[in-house]
Amino acid sequence: MTRIEDILSPDSLGFDPQQLTERYRLERERRVRTDAEAQFLEVSNESAFANKYLAEDPYSETVQRDPIKDESEVIIVGGGWVGMMTAARLTEAGIDNVRIVESAADFGGTWYWNRYPGAQCDIESYSYLPLLEETGYIPKLRYSYAPEIYEHAQRIGHHFDLYKNAVFQTWVTEARWLEEEDRWLVKTNRGDEMRTRYVCLGTGPANRPRLPGIPGVESFKGHSFHTCRWDYDYTGGGPEGGLEKLSDKKVAIIGTGATAVQCVPFLGASAKQLYVFQRTPSSVDARNNRETDAQWAASLEPGWQAERQKRFGEAILGLAMYPEFKDDGWTRLTQNLQAMLAKAEGLPMDQMGDVVQLADFQTMESIRSRVDEAIENPEVADKLKAFYNQFCKRPTFNDEFLATFNRPNVELVDVSDSKGVEQITEKGIVANGVEYEVDCIIYASGFEITSSYQRRMGIPIFGVDGESIYDHWDEGMRTMHGLMTRGFPNLFLAGGLFVFQLGANYCYGVDVQAKQVAYAISALNERGVLSANVSEAAEQRWIDDQLSDESSGAQLVLGGSSENCTPGYYNQEGTAKRYRDVRLESYGKGLGAYRRVLDQWREDGQLDGLELKT
Ligand code: NDP
What are the backbone dihedrals phi and psi of residue 114, each rounded to the nearest 5 degrees, phi first? Predict the structure, then answer.
């Protein structure tokens, strides 16, 4: 029988798997906090301190308007990709009385708010940017920067005429099902009372910034902002950098996730002094960006984007490899895995997990070696190395971040021993017993991605008999297809709370759902349905499917939400499954399988699982 030890010995691998296993365990233990998600401060409209990080819009003046009291066919909450793509697919299906309600002053969602210097999409633009063929646009770069992406959101808005009914700078404060009218009543902070037959919640997974609940966080007397509300009035410059007003400022940035990796090089280039407070290093792989080849763009055939998105998904999962993705960092792990599996032919199935782990070690070893190549000071280099499986955290790709730490004006402050920054004072930040006095603190502390449903969505939603959706989901998210939930007729959830396991390209998954919502609403209208409610059996069937061994087995492939991972939002800060079953929020068999389930449901044409009132 083939033995894994014979095929893949430490000598041939170039690393010792046992030592790495132990190091990963220790690094995780150093960071797990008993307060888990409770360590973060809720950023809400209610708290005067936190409100400035959420409600204030540094990019636009507030426009006054009268309250709206009218009726629409569909109200979509959120004007980011989910809302726009759902509205676009509804428009294509002939439903155009669609209103998007959005808190920002324009479309774009995350790309409206995230204008920090260097903001860039980490997925290749040809697969990520939605509706490229529909709008006739080809991105300028392989990996687009935020301004181009934001501009594309506006392009979609104009192309599908979404501006005509849109309501901006407006927060939905309540959605309530009116049983006797078969309508939803949507109330907002502008005094609006809008009735609608259908509501789609397109609030997205990263719409609420989060702040670390560091002792003293409210006491700092200098300037501060969150990366998703970048204050260019204070820093000077723009998304391309040139933050000239920082030339006499001492700046601290808290966090070293995907956002910080992109903006730290620009801060390092401009600030008089930059302190980067790091609890867990990111894995930072090469970016390999380049301009779009005009000849290639001209050669594209109709249907190219859907095909490319499908191929990208397959390449990430190692189901197939295409030349165009060979030098894309997202496929590094699966390429290593394929190479190892080729060597390990004949290996018993029960040892496959070991090979996956070895491929992960190998991938991370090469990413760690990039740190040694880039960093002059070996002590700093060691602190910047990520010791966990690649998909425990969102991998990052950047060619300037690491070298920034060679600058004399940039200091890496490791706060892993204290499991985060110890304290914030009137003057600055305390870490490892030292007070770092600064003029400005920038929070690159991420978003409410896995906190409670209520906290993330932030909208009271009441269904049949006035039941709160959050009570219905008390023990975890209950849905059919991640899209409809019992007791909340004519309500669609898209691309927000329910995520697509094993699919890094968010927009592709969103489109799968957007098409489903558009189909469902058209089909309900064609049948003259007043309200559609998910049956108890259908909801339970979906839950059983999600919890089945087959489904959870697939989730193990890349181990992203594993309890063995370093803490982060993927595993509810290291406590995954302790509070609620995260599997209810994703489809573990992957996006391809999810798409096939929805395709089949549409093909059947029976609106299976829905109780219909006509
Ligand atoms: P993350 O949640 O990934 O990172 C937050 C950072 O703050 C982490 O480094 C975290 O450390 C740190 N932090 C939190 N609390 C403390 C504390 N008390 N003391 C010190 N450090 C602390 O947020 P990001 O904004 O970086 O990224 C969020 C997500 O947004 C990404 O994962 C990605 O999905 C998306 N994104 C996508 C991009 C793209 O290119 N498409 C670009 C940027 C972001 P620790 O890790 O130890 O918790």
Answer: -90, 90
Domains 1-31+217-288+327-445 and 71-208+449-613 share a fold: yes
CB 175 within 8 A of CB 407: no
CA 585 to ligand 1 center in whole angstroms:
20
Ligand 1 atom 2: residue of nearest CA: 446
How far does the centroid of ligand 1 lie from the alpha carbon of residue 419, in Å? 15
Predicted pLDDT at 549? 62
Cα 569 to middle of ligand 1, angstroms = 8
Taking domain 1-31+217-288+327-445, whether its CATH number is 3.40.930.10 is answered by no
Type of residue at 143: Y
Predicted confidence at residue 507, as pLDDT, reads 87
Q: Whole-number mean pLDDT of the chain?
A: 91
The reported pLDDT for the residue numbered 262 is 98
Amino acid identity, residue 470?
A: Y
- What 359-365 contacts at long range (C-beta under 8 Å, 24+ apart), as own/partner pairs, is 359/333, 360/333, 360/389, 360/390, 360/559, 361/13, 361/15, 361/17, 361/20, 362/13, 362/15, 362/336, 363/332, 363/333, 363/336, 363/390, 364/283, 364/388, 364/389, 364/390, 365/14, 365/15
Q: What is the pLDDT of residue 486?
A: 97
Query: pLDDT at position 559, please?
Result: 41
Torsion angles phi and psi, residue 383, rounded to 5: -70, -25
Q: Give the tokens for residue 427.
A: 């003057």
C-alpha closest to that of 85 among 589, 511, 564, 608: 511
Report the nearest atom of ligand 1 relative to the CA of 443: 7
Enter the pTM of the model.
0.94
Please give the share of the chain, as a percent, with pLDDT higher than 90.
Answer: 72
Euclidean distance between CA atoms 41 and 510, whole angstroms: 29
**How far away, in angstroms, is 257 Cα from ligand 1 center?**
4
Mean pLDDT of 431-449: 95
Pocket lining for ligand 1, CB < 6 angstroms: 31, 120-122, 206, 212, 214, 254-260, 262, 277, 279-280, 394, 415, 420-421, 444-447, 567-569
pLDDT of residue 85: 96
Q: What is the pLDDT of residues 184-224, one digit of tens each?
A: 999 999 999 999 999 999 988 888 899 999 999 999 999 99
Cα 115 from chain centre = 16
499: which DSSP letter?
Answer: B
pLDDT per position as a tens digit, 494-552: 876 666 554 668 888 899 999 999 999 999 999 999 999 999 999 999 988 887 766 65
Ligand 1 centroid–CA 444 distance in Å is 6
Closest residue by Cα to atom 10, ligand 1, is 255
Domain boundaries of the chain, sorted by first residue: 1-31+217-288+327-445, 71-208+449-613
What residue spans of 403-446 are helical by DSSP H? none
Assigned CATH for 71-208+449-613: 3.50.50.60
